[in-house]
Design brief:
With about 220 residues, this protein is an alpha+beta fold. The chain contains 4 helices and 10 strands. It has 2 domains: about 55 residues; about 130 residues, no CATH class. Helices cover about 35% and strands about 25% of the residues. The strands form 2 sheets. A 6-stranded antiparallel sheet has the order 3-4-5-6-9-10, with no helix packed on it. It has a 4-stranded mixed sheet with strand order 2-1-8-7.
Length: about 220
Protein backbone atom coordinates (compact mmCIF):
# COMPACT_ATOMS: atom_id res chain seq x y z
CA UNK A 1 0.00 0.00 0.00
CA UNK A 2 2.74 2.48 0.73
CA UNK A 3 4.42 1.73 -2.58
CA UNK A 4 1.25 2.51 -4.59
CA UNK A 5 0.08 5.68 -2.78
CA UNK A 6 3.42 7.48 -2.28
CA UNK A 7 3.77 9.31 -5.70
CA UNK A 8 0.20 10.76 -5.79
CA UNK A 9 1.05 14.19 -4.15
CA UNK A 10 3.98 14.68 -6.62
CA UNK A 11 1.74 13.98 -9.59
CA UNK A 12 -0.85 16.45 -8.33
CA UNK A 13 1.82 19.07 -7.89
CA UNK A 14 3.19 18.41 -11.36
CA UNK A 15 -0.25 18.76 -12.95
CA UNK A 16 -0.81 21.98 -11.01
CA UNK A 17 2.49 23.37 -12.26
CA UNK A 18 1.60 22.51 -15.87
CA UNK A 19 -1.80 24.14 -15.49
CA UNK A 20 -0.20 27.31 -14.11
CA UNK A 21 2.27 27.46 -17.00
CA UNK A 22 -0.58 27.03 -19.47
CA UNK A 23 -2.52 29.90 -17.85
CA UNK A 24 0.54 32.14 -17.94
CA UNK A 25 1.19 31.39 -21.63
CA UNK A 26 -2.41 32.13 -22.49
CA UNK A 27 -2.31 35.39 -20.57
CA UNK A 28 0.95 36.45 -22.22
CA UNK A 29 -0.26 35.68 -25.73
CA UNK A 30 -3.53 37.49 -25.14
CA UNK A 31 -1.73 40.56 -23.77
CA UNK A 32 0.68 40.54 -26.73
CA UNK A 33 -2.10 40.42 -29.35
CA UNK A 34 -3.63 43.86 -28.54
CA UNK A 35 -0.15 45.39 -28.70
CA UNK A 36 0.55 43.85 -32.07
CA UNK A 37 -2.92 44.79 -33.25
CA UNK A 38 -2.43 48.29 -31.90
CA UNK A 39 0.96 48.54 -33.56
CA UNK A 40 -0.48 47.27 -36.83
CA UNK A 41 -3.37 49.73 -36.68
CA UNK A 42 -0.96 52.52 -35.78
CA UNK A 43 1.19 51.75 -38.80
CA UNK A 44 -1.89 51.58 -40.98
CA UNK A 45 -3.23 54.86 -39.65
CA UNK A 46 0.09 56.58 -40.33
CA UNK A 47 0.73 55.04 -43.72
CA UNK A 48 -2.78 55.42 -45.18
CA UNK A 49 -3.17 59.22 -44.71
CA UNK A 50 0.35 59.70 -46.08
CA UNK A 51 -0.47 57.77 -49.24
CA UNK A 52 -3.76 59.62 -49.68
CA UNK A 53 -2.04 62.94 -49.21
CA UNK A 54 0.62 62.04 -51.81
CA UNK A 55 -2.07 61.11 -54.34
CA UNK A 56 -4.27 64.15 -53.70
CA UNK A 57 -1.49 66.76 -53.81
CA UNK A 58 -0.87 66.71 -57.60
CA UNK A 59 -4.60 66.88 -58.33
CA UNK A 60 -5.07 70.03 -56.24
CA UNK A 61 -1.93 71.69 -57.59
CA UNK A 62 -2.89 70.88 -61.21
CA UNK A 63 -6.14 72.89 -60.99
CA UNK A 64 -5.33 76.57 -61.78
CA UNK A 65 -7.67 79.40 -60.75
CA UNK A 66 -10.25 79.79 -63.48
CA UNK A 67 -10.63 83.58 -63.49
CA UNK A 68 -6.98 84.63 -63.97
CA UNK A 69 -6.42 81.95 -66.63
CA UNK A 70 -9.40 83.05 -68.74
CA UNK A 71 -8.69 86.76 -68.65
CA UNK A 72 -5.36 86.73 -70.57
CA UNK A 73 -6.73 84.23 -73.08
CA UNK A 74 -9.74 86.46 -73.78
CA UNK A 75 -7.52 89.50 -74.17
CA UNK A 76 -5.12 87.72 -76.52
CA UNK A 77 -7.95 86.31 -78.65
CA UNK A 78 -9.49 89.72 -79.28
CA UNK A 79 -8.18 90.94 -82.64
CA UNK A 80 -7.56 94.62 -83.23
CA UNK A 81 -10.31 96.12 -85.38
CA UNK A 82 -9.28 98.41 -88.22
CA UNK A 83 -10.90 101.81 -88.20
CA UNK A 84 -13.58 102.40 -90.82
CA UNK A 85 -12.52 104.73 -93.65
CA UNK A 86 -13.46 108.38 -93.40
CA UNK A 87 -15.02 110.25 -96.31
CA UNK A 88 -11.82 112.27 -96.74
CA UNK A 89 -9.81 109.03 -97.20
CA UNK A 90 -12.11 107.49 -99.82
CA UNK A 91 -11.61 107.98 -103.57
CA UNK A 92 -12.76 107.02 -107.03
CA UNK A 93 -9.91 105.25 -108.85
CA UNK A 94 -9.89 106.57 -112.41
CA UNK A 95 -10.12 103.75 -114.96
CA UNK A 96 -10.09 101.33 -112.01
CA UNK A 97 -6.33 101.74 -111.62
CA UNK A 98 -5.08 101.84 -108.02
CA UNK A 99 -1.70 103.22 -109.09
CA UNK A 100 -3.28 105.99 -111.16
CA UNK A 101 -5.20 109.14 -110.26
CA UNK A 102 -7.41 108.93 -107.19
CA UNK A 103 -10.37 111.32 -107.30
CA UNK A 104 -12.21 112.77 -104.32
CA UNK A 105 -15.72 114.13 -105.03
CA UNK A 106 -14.71 114.82 -108.63
CA UNK A 107 -16.78 117.16 -110.80
CA UNK A 108 -15.67 115.09 -113.80
CA UNK A 109 -15.46 118.04 -116.18
CA UNK A 110 -13.46 118.10 -119.38
CA UNK A 111 -13.17 114.56 -120.63
CA UNK A 112 -14.94 113.19 -117.57
CA UNK A 113 -13.95 110.47 -115.10
CA UNK A 114 -13.28 107.08 -116.65
CA UNK A 115 -15.04 104.19 -114.94
CA UNK A 116 -13.59 101.57 -117.27
CA UNK A 117 -10.07 100.91 -118.43
CA UNK A 118 -11.10 100.69 -122.09
CA UNK A 119 -12.57 104.23 -122.31
CA UNK A 120 -16.13 103.06 -122.96
CA UNK A 121 -17.76 104.41 -119.76
CA UNK A 122 -17.30 107.90 -118.25
CA UNK A 123 -18.97 109.97 -115.58
CA UNK A 124 -19.45 113.60 -116.65
CA UNK A 125 -20.50 116.82 -114.88
CA UNK A 126 -21.12 115.15 -111.52
CA UNK A 127 -22.62 116.69 -108.39
CA UNK A 128 -22.21 114.66 -105.20
CA UNK A 129 -24.91 114.85 -102.53
CA UNK A 130 -23.20 112.23 -100.33
CA UNK A 131 -19.56 111.29 -99.91
CA UNK A 132 -18.80 109.36 -96.72
CA UNK A 133 -16.56 106.47 -95.77
CA UNK A 134 -19.20 103.94 -96.84
CA UNK A 135 -21.10 105.49 -99.75
CA UNK A 136 -21.03 108.21 -102.37
CA UNK A 137 -24.15 109.33 -104.23
CA UNK A 138 -24.06 111.74 -107.16
CA UNK A 139 -26.02 112.83 -110.22
CA UNK A 140 -24.75 113.82 -113.65
CA UNK A 141 -24.22 112.23 -117.04
CA UNK A 142 -23.06 108.74 -117.89
CA UNK A 143 -21.31 108.61 -121.27
CA UNK A 144 -21.52 105.13 -122.76
CA UNK A 145 -20.03 103.75 -125.96
CA UNK A 146 -22.24 101.21 -127.74
CA UNK A 147 -19.14 99.64 -129.39
CA UNK A 148 -20.96 99.14 -132.72
CA UNK A 149 -19.49 97.91 -134.99
CA UNK A 150 -16.55 98.12 -132.56
CA UNK A 151 -15.55 100.29 -129.62
CA UNK A 152 -13.17 102.41 -131.74
CA UNK A 153 -15.95 103.25 -134.19
CA UNK A 154 -18.89 103.14 -131.78
CA UNK A 155 -21.34 105.87 -130.84
CA UNK A 156 -21.16 107.55 -127.43
CA UNK A 157 -24.50 108.19 -125.70
CA UNK A 158 -24.79 110.76 -122.89
CA UNK A 159 -27.34 109.39 -120.43
CA UNK A 160 -28.65 111.20 -117.30
CA UNK A 161 -27.72 109.12 -114.28
CA UNK A 162 -27.73 108.84 -110.52
CA UNK A 163 -24.77 106.71 -109.42
CA UNK A 164 -24.09 105.16 -106.02
CA UNK A 165 -20.53 104.12 -105.20
CA UNK A 166 -19.90 101.71 -102.31
CA UNK A 167 -17.80 98.88 -100.85
CA UNK A 168 -14.47 100.73 -100.49
CA UNK A 169 -11.32 98.59 -100.49
CA UNK A 170 -8.00 99.50 -98.89
CA UNK A 171 -4.99 100.49 -100.99
CA UNK A 172 -1.56 100.56 -99.35
CA UNK A 173 1.24 102.77 -100.66
CA UNK A 174 4.33 104.60 -99.45
CA UNK A 175 2.28 107.79 -99.19
CA UNK A 176 -0.24 106.17 -96.85
CA UNK A 177 -3.43 104.14 -96.81
CA UNK A 178 -6.30 105.06 -99.10
CA UNK A 179 -9.72 103.56 -99.77
CA UNK A 180 -11.23 103.28 -103.25
CA UNK A 181 -14.76 102.47 -104.34
CA UNK A 182 -15.17 98.95 -105.76
CA UNK A 183 -18.88 98.84 -106.54
CA UNK A 184 -21.24 101.06 -108.54
CA UNK A 185 -24.98 100.97 -109.16
CA UNK A 186 -26.89 103.18 -111.57
CA UNK A 187 -30.36 104.65 -111.87
CA UNK A 188 -31.39 106.17 -115.21
CA UNK A 189 -34.23 108.69 -114.68
CA UNK A 190 -34.93 109.01 -118.42
CA UNK A 191 -34.26 105.37 -119.23
CA UNK A 192 -31.70 104.10 -121.71
CA UNK A 193 -31.61 104.66 -125.47
CA UNK A 194 -32.63 101.69 -127.57
CA UNK A 195 -29.03 101.05 -128.63
CA UNK A 196 -28.11 100.47 -124.97
CA UNK A 197 -30.94 98.10 -124.10
CA UNK A 198 -31.04 94.31 -124.01
CA UNK A 199 -27.69 92.66 -124.57
CA UNK A 200 -26.03 96.06 -125.04
CA UNK A 201 -27.19 97.41 -121.69
CA UNK A 202 -24.41 98.64 -119.39
CA UNK A 203 -23.44 96.46 -116.44
CA UNK A 204 -25.61 97.37 -113.48
CA UNK A 205 -24.65 96.93 -110.70
CA UNK A 206 -20.96 96.84 -111.47
CA UNK A 207 -18.26 95.35 -109.23
CA UNK A 208 -14.73 96.40 -110.14
CA UNK A 209 -13.22 92.94 -109.59
CA UNK A 210 -9.87 93.78 -111.19
CA UNK A 211 -9.50 96.79 -108.92
CA UNK A 212 -10.32 94.68 -105.84
CA UNK A 213 -7.58 92.18 -106.72
CA UNK A 214 -5.04 94.93 -107.35
CA UNK A 215 -5.89 96.67 -104.08
CA UNK A 216 -5.43 93.48 -102.08
CA UNK A 217 -2.02 92.92 -103.64
CA UNK A 218 -0.81 96.37 -102.51
CA UNK A 219 -1.42 95.41 -98.87
CA UNK A 220 -0.15 91.81 -98.96
Amino acid sequence: MRTLTAPRPRQVAAFASLACIAVLLTACSSSASPSASSATSTVSSVTTPGAASTTAAPASSAAPPSAPASSPATSAASPSVSAAPAGTDTFLAAAQTVTGTLLHEPACGGYGCALSGDSTAFLFHMTWSTWTGTEAVGTGTYKLNDCEPNCAGGHVYPVPVMVTLSQPVKVCSSSGTRWVWSHASFTFPDGLPKALQGQNAPQNPWTFSGLVTAAQQTCS
